[in-house]
């Protein structure tokens, strides 16, 4: 992770320097100091370049003084509308060739200074453990960013919880990026066990225990693979310390299909490699639990992930099979590629029985239909609880992880009626495909406050964004961390 | 077709809605969907706990579904509050409608329905109001039901001219006029057909001296897909691809019948998307009426092209206070919302809320969908100002939102709402007051209700 430090405003002894200048402002503070040292050279350069401080306007000077190798002057636009996190992300790319960079944020507040650090750190993420021949000069060199802030003590304090959340984000991105031959359910569970060092209680169930619990839906999905399924529970007792049975915990549930071939209802070859990230819901829950523990959130939270691989093995479940879920409800499997909801059904039932949660949020790369409905900017949000839904939407706006409310209703629920069992696992045809999937899940929540995020369109990005490099986005970690921080702590 | 009476005439089969309660010895509870044949002349129909008008419409529809073929029916609304009684009658009328003009020997069906109420005279004005909306819906349904060989663009325009006798001004812009206006989108889409495209403008002057509310409708009399031809399976349903225009025309009829004080105008883009030697092609670049250039990607995404020109005409010629377009636009909205709700897109929160509320009130339900930055970005073209849609390939494409982002480029700063009614123009489920597989007329009652609720307050204008 990129090292972010905070220091008193002073011109650096070495490395790159970034000056931030608001629209219409004259260089002051460190910028004025540098201008003096350059004998007015900075002012002349900015005037020659027509620099007005407009948003994203940039001027680069190489080695303007002996101690600075590269000077980047960035316009911020009107300071009131500054998105400091995005700015941090955008400036990373422009200084990543220097080993060290100082950002002059002496005109900004402590929280803005911290947000610049967060943005740069999030953008600096790379998943390169499988690149063995990459040349050193092709790798980014930036190791440390020092943010020069008037109130650097406060900025550092503001950054500490952000860093913990960023580490959660990176854990999620790592898990989602890992190839499916490496990250199978057993390996995923092993990685979760490492989180005990953050203070999480981690509990892993294998097929024997799940069979005892009656997890017919989850086990049906898993039975076609040579890799055994796992159910991982991660508990963070930040409020009660695990001693007294105080509040009901908040509960997060993730779909973790480490690879989804579709099973017997096999997917077409084109694009199937993307199905390694069909465990992104579980990846997000894992990163979220690490974030909550990392910043010592004052909340009792439990994260549950159902880990399976959906393979067309010789014992794979067939279309037409009827399975009995842990709740006792029977399910006719029409399409073995609608497996995520089968996994969630059992995990949700277990969560209710074992933890009696205050609310449940499940995350799943569940349907292609949600991409057709909403595209890649918004995840689909389904909920039976208005308060929880509006809090999630607001947390999404605050963190840039957007969600869009989708409908539920009896008319859609009718679509999953089965002739032979309590329900079937697809709604018949493509019509309203993500809604019927949500209706299926709702049949297992026993009327508890619940929200379902269909993240099939937002878990993976095909292009770089300011704070999210192309690839695994870890969508949901920051949103749900924010949800907890704003409403459920203390 | 429906008459208000105090007592049933002799020989009429009585249909009595029964609210849920203790069971009848037969086991009948009054739940929704339950029917009890009490005697040859009387049937009870479960009304559950219906309370809203839309719920009573559902009960009315259920009564007709349970009635069987006798020529005379009497629905018992005695004792119901007026809005429930009206709802019962409206639901019955909507469900009883049939299109059997093309059957040599139409199956027997109820010819007359009586709505029994305690005070027929007292309910007369409320019922007249409801009848205006029913007339609009039925006009829309007739048009949607007509097959493509009968309802050509020429015939569609001819039927719309029939609205002149209702006090609606009808203006038709033919090929020459469209060329003069530079309607490159509509001319390209309709260019492959033996019958040329046209725009029909319907005007209701109303009383208020204010800019009109504008309705814009997609009127593809038949959509083969053009060069990007559709699969054969299910193509016959494409006779209904003019349902948006039909709903707009139906709404105009409703406004005229009830003498709405609000001025309104409907701009209907009418064409046939045919596969022929003169069809437009993928890769073509069109210059639209607004002057913008559009790169064609898929000739089956034709609706947005004809709407773009119609929206531009509506905005520049009438400067309306708000513009609403209705179109069976994308398959994507069916994937998103199924057959229970149409997609709602807008650029104005107040208008969006009003439209959604009007839909709830009449049981034509909508759900808002987003137009994100990315939806617009994806339409950037290498050769023209805009791409018409996002090339699909094997990827999932949020085409409904992309289409809405495309249309937004042609409305300027006007308050605008776009209703993607694909999947709702024909009843695919039993929860609508239309028989399965028949046209719903979706949108006509919604627009009528929107005008009444939102644009007829004299203090507002």
Describe this structure in words.
The complex is a heterodimer of chains A (490) and B (461). Chain A has 490 residues and is α/β, with parallel strands linked by helices. Chain A has two domains: 149 residues, Leucine Aminopeptidase, subunit E, domain 1 (3-Layer(aba) Sandwich); 325 residues, Zn peptidases (Aminopeptidase). Helix content of chain A is 34%, strand content 21%. In chain A, strands 7-8-10-9-13-17-14-15 form an eight-stranded mixed sheet, sandwiched between helices. In chain A, a hairpin with a 5-residue loop joins strand 11 and strand 12. Chain A is elongated. With 461 residues, chain B is an alpha/beta fold. Chain B folds into two domains: 117 residues, Leucine Aminopeptidase, subunit E, domain 1; 322 residues, Aminopeptidase. Chain B contains 13 helices and 17 strands. In chain B, the strands form three sheets. In chain B, strands 7-8-10-9-13-17-14-15 form an eight-stranded mixed sheet, with helices on both faces. A six-stranded mixed sheet of chain B has the order 1-6-5-2-4-3. In chain B, strand 9, helix 7 and strand 10 form a beta-alpha-beta unit. In chain B, helix 6 packs antiparallel against helix 8. The chains are: A alpha/beta (490), B alpha/beta (461).
What topology does this entry show?
The complex is a heterodimer of chains A (about 500) and B (about 450).
Chain A: E1 3-7, E2 16-21, H1 30-37, H2 41-48, E3 58-65, E4 68-75, H3 84-95, E5 100-104, H4 110-123, E6 144-148, H5 152-177, H6 185-193, E7 201-205, H7 207-212, H8 216-222, E8 230-237, E9 250-260, H9 280-294, E10 300-310, E11 322-324, E12 330-332, H10 340-355, E13 359-364, H11 369-374, E14 379-383, H12 386-399, E15 403-405, H13 410-413, E16 423-424, H14 433-442, E17 450-454, E18 460-461, E19 471-472, H15 477-487
Parallel strand pairs in A: 1-6, 2-4, 2-5, 5-6, 9-10, 9-13, 12-16, 13-17, 14-15
Antiparallel strand pairs in A: 3-4, 7-8, 8-10, 11-12, 14-17, 18-19
Helix pairs in contact in A: 3-4, 4-5, 5-9, 8-10, 9-15, 10-14, 12-15
Chain B: E1 2-5, E2 13-19, E3 35-39, E4 42-48, H1 53-67, E5 72-76, H2 82-96, E6 112-116, H3 120-145, H4 153-161, E7 169-173, H5 175-181, H6 184-190, E8 198-204, E9 213-223, H7 243-257, E10 264-273, E11 285-287, E12 293-295, H8 303-318, E13 322-327, H9 332-337, E14 342-346, H10 349-362, E15 366-368, H11 373-377, E16 386-387, H12 399-408, E17 416-420, H13 444-454
Helix pairs in contact in B: 1-2, 2-3, 3-7, 3-13, 6-8, 7-13, 8-12, 10-13
Keywords (chain B): Aminopeptidase, Hydrolase, Manganese, Protease
InterPro entries (chain B): Leucine_aapep/pepB, Peptidase_M17_C
Family (chain B): Belongs to the peptidase M17 family.
